Structure formats: C-alpha cells, structure tokens
Amino acid sequence: MSLKVSKRRPLVAQSEIRNMTLECARVGGVNLAQGVCDLPVPQVVMDGANEAMADGYNIYTRFDGLPRLRQAIADKQKKYTGMDVDPERQVMVSAGATGAFYAACLALLDEGDEVIVFEPYYGYHIVTMASLGIKPVYVTLEPPNWEFCAEDLEKAVTAKTRAIILNTPSNPAGKVFDREELTLIADFAQAHDIFVFTDEIYEHFVYDGLTHISPATLPGMARRTITMSGLSKVFAITGWRLGYAICDPEWALPMGHFNDLVYVCAASPLQIGAAKGMEQLGSEYYQGVSDDHQMKRDLFCDTLRDIGLTPHVPKGAYYTLADVTGLPGRTAKESALYLLEKTGVACVPGSAFYGGPVGETMVRFCFAKEMPILQDAMDRLRKLA
Ligand code: PLP
Predict the structure, then answer these.
(1) CATH of the domain at 25
(2) In this structure, is residue 87 part of a structural domain?
(3) Aminotransferase class I/classII large domain: from which residue to which, for each copy (predicted)?
(4) Within this chain, do residues 110 and 137 fall inside the same structural domain, yes or no?
(5) Most buried in the list 109, 129, 178, 197, measured by CB within 10 Å?
(6) Does ligand 1 come within 6 angstroms of the Cβ of 352?
(7) Is the pTM for the entire model greater than 0.85?
(8) What is the pLDDT of residues 54-76, one digit of tens each?
(9) Are residues 239 and 174 in the same domain?
(10) So what's the pLDDT on residue 78?
(11) What is the pLDDT of residue 321?
C-alpha cells in the first residue's frame, strides 16, 4: 500500500482536549476543557493591528520578526524580569509559543536525544518532541506543593540527556517555581551541560503575591536557557498566533532559520498590534489580569471543594486539577464524561497530563472564563452536591 499516513500520525490523533470539546458541544455544555482565555482584547492591540494593515504592513517580515516588536519584547523582558536582551540578535518572533518550541526542537535537538520533563506536563511539549523522535523522560512533581528534589533529576539523566523543560507558571498544576527550585535546576543543568527550555506563557498569571522568576536570570544560566512566551494568553489573542523565544544569538539564528522554514514569519500587522500593546500597557494592566484570575480561581476552587472534588489550588496560570476519585468511573476519562453528563461542564481527564497512572485520579478545569460563563459552570457543578 503506498497511500498511507506517516508513522507519526497516531501521535496527534487522540487529543483529550479536542475529544472533550466535541463531547461538550454534543450536549450543549460549558467548555472548561479548552485553555482559551475570555478577556477582552485590549483596544490598543486591536487598533494597532487594524491601522498596521492600512499602513501597508501586509508583506513578509524578517524571519525573526519586525524590529519594533523585537524591541518591545526586549524592553518588556528587561522591565519585568531584569533580563538584558539584544533585540537584534536574541529575539525570535514566532507563531505562538508553540512555534517557538518547535523551532527550538528542530534547531537544537536530534532524533534519539532525551529531554527531562516534569509531569503533570503540557501535552504539546511531549507530542512535539515525540514527532521528532526525541524522548521525554518524566520527573513527577509530588502534590500538594508539586515538589521534586535533586535526586529525582539525577535519576532521570542518561548520556542522551540534552535538555530539561520547565513551564512556570505551569499548565496544568499552576506551579510557580521558586528561586530555590530554579537554583537546583540551574545547578543541575550546568553540571550536566544541558539546555533549559522554559515556557513562560503564563508569566503574568501569578497569584498570592508570588513573583514569576525567569530561569535565564539565574547566575550562569543566560547562555543555556531558551525562554519562550507569547501574547496569546495575556492579550487574549490565541488566534493571532504570536509568540517569541529569547536566547543566546548562537541559538537564536538557527532557530530563526527553522522558524523561516516552517512559518516564514509571524503575521505582519498583528506584530504591530502586539508591539503597541507591549509598549503602551503597563504594570496596572498586568496586575489587573492577575487579580481578575485570582478572584476567579478562589470562587471556582471554593465550588469544587463544596461538591467534594478537592482542588489543587494553583499558584499561577488558569487551570485547576481536582480529585475525582469520589466520582463514578474507573478512569479519569470516565469520570470526566460522568461529570459532563450530570452537570453539562466539560473538563480534561488528568491522564492527558501524565505518562503514568497518577493522572487517572484527577481532571483539569480552565477557569479563565467571562464571569457569567464561569458562574453558569459553577451553578451547574453545584448540582453534584
Ligand atoms: N504553552 C503552554 C504551557 C500552554 O498552556 C499553551 C496554551 O494552552 C501554549 C504554550 C500555547 O501558546 P501559544 O498560543 O503562544 O502557542
């Protein structure tokens, strides 16, 4: 048979998030499965993109992005993390943080390499690597504080280990890595001479007065750290596909060349909209986003607690994992479907975030919804009690 799909095809066939979204639409439910943030798009961002089209920003940009956006990214990084970034040689604008990670894997890793990943993990990290023949090796974070120790990392290392992935604040656990933990990871990465890929897409969604720390700012970490983030979440523009990577020029150039190969460049007028947003929106905007989500987190976690689905209260990002061992169902998927049937609220089975069986005890909800939708979801969930 010559007409057939590739061997890597099964890797992307079965996304639990997609499945639950379909199931949710079937019953006309409230979708708390997908990680789409319901904030309004800031006016300056929207107007900026519209004006840019009229101003002629309609052709390819440089493969690593327009100078204005690269400058805005470098300035913002300096202001919020203290990182010194050369916008000309260290920033690559990409098709979302997703595109940045793909370009990094293509440029810096080879088939057969191993990469250490904390679980619960973000599924795209795993599948992106698997599609390139790169093997994830898991280090399990222990609830309730999602802890790990140096020994866990050492056990995961082999001669093939080339990198470790961090996601801080994390999806789905909402873990915000503190300085002590990051120092441990930094020492480990330096001792084994490996890259640190860090996905910081939720950098502005941090609660309880905690501070987001960019691992690249730790002593000795600038050269080996690939920092990835984007505007999808904080400007609520997931459909614009705008993200970026910041790293040493030695890695930024090859990553940029792969970005060129796969995406050519990010959408030109949208880059201007994002640049204007980054230039004009200040700390009050970001603090407002964080306060709004902290309020939603508290309301939502109270609801889960009241109905007996004990939540792991997140310190950042906008998801909560909840214990479903009290619900009918032999697997997390069965419990998630039961919940959808009974309440009309869709969530993601925890098995989507774990290599091993631990995920079968939990599900993930996204609480980044407009208040009326979140209220509807909470009212529906309360029917379980
Ligand atoms: N990284 C993490 C950890 C995410 O949770 C998501 C979206 O859910 C993304 C990246 C996707 O980001 P982008 O839209 O910039 O590709």
Answers:
(1) 3.90.1150.10
(2) yes
(3) 30-369
(4) yes
(5) 197
(6) no
(7) yes
(8) 999 999 999 999 999 999 999 99
(9) yes
(10) 96
(11) 98
* Residue 204 falls inside a structural domain: yes
Task: Confirm or reject: Cβ of 243 under 6 Å from ligand 1.
Answer: yes
CA-nearest residue, atom 7 of ligand 1: 35
Same-domain check for residues 273 and 341: no
Cα of 332 to ligand 1 centre, how many Å? 23
Cβ(113)–Cβ(134) under 8 Å? Answer: yes
Residues 143 and 236 in one domain: yes
Residue 165 contacts residue 119 (beta carbons within 8 Å): no
Of 265, 280, 295, which one is at a domain's C-terminal end?
280
CATH code of the domain containing 194: 3.40.640.10
**pLDDT(14) > 80:** no
The domain in which residue 77 lies consists of: 44-280
State percent of the chain over pLDDT 90. 94
**Any atom of ligand 1 within 6 Å of the Cβ of 201:** yes
Whether residue 12 has pLDDT greater than 90: no
Question: Does the CB atom of residue 362 touch ligand 1 within 6 A?
Answer: no
Last residue of a domain, one of 230, 252, 280: 280
Q: How far is the CA of 98 from the centre of ligand 1 (A)?
A: 6
